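Course assignment 3, question 2. Fill in each field.
Student: A.L.
Task: Predict the tertiary structure for the chain below.
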Amino acid sequence: MKYIQDENSSTLIVTFIVFVIICFFIVKWDMYETKKCEIEGEYRELLSKVRLRGAVIMILIGVFSILKELYKRF
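Answer field:
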């Protein structure tokens, strides 16, 4: 996407759905890995937590910008 304003609405809706699905799977994976490490008594690297949560934050920023643009259009 060069500029979000130049995209048509159907592309934005599909991108929004894909971002939400990816975010959901990342959060589920993070929860699974955290629970697995707690059960096994292992230490989970801080860097992996930061990367996963950083990815979620970046995706959420994209989701909110798409929602804002869709709100302007409808």
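Instructor remarks: The chain has a mean pLDDT of 86. The longest helix spans residues 9-40.
Grade: pending
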